[in-house]
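Progress against Task 2.4 (sequence-to-structure conversion) is shown through the following example record, which the project officer requested during the mid-term review.
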Amino acid sequence: MPLPSLKRQSRPCESIAFLPVVLAALLAGCADRSQFPSLMRRPAEAAYRTTSTPRPASNGAASLSADLPARLDGLLAAAREANAQFEQRRSGATAAVGAATGAAPGSERWSIASIALAGLETARSRTALPLADLDRLEAEASNRAVDGSDLDLKAVRATREQVEALMQRQDAAITALRQRLAE
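Structure tokens generated for the chain above:
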């Protein structure tokens, strides 16, 4: 007894049943484009664009926000304290790198110098911590400067510049010591 064929034979009536669906899908892509809304600006949108919000009137002499000077002083003090710790570690790292000059990588003197440099980088990272708060304060002050005085923004930027100057000196010291160790 022969096995029935597993091939499915298509029947003409099944193919014809899908014909309206296929034709509708094909013709939908050919719809009249004039029936869709335009993406051009409408007159009402142009009216919104031309009106401006009045700025609040300045109330005379501009001054810093009440708690800002104390916060900036605290952040600058924290950065200076971290810089002092950096400077304390710097002399030890300089001595360790001096002792390791010419030593083979992986030797004991080289390892001691590398550990001293890692400690120096840790001290540097503590100097960077106040920058995160200064970033936030700068964003807040720039928002306030849009609607009024920019004194807060100028004060935050001045403090930020002082902290960044400390970090630049620290970066230069670490880079110089790394180069000496690599020689």
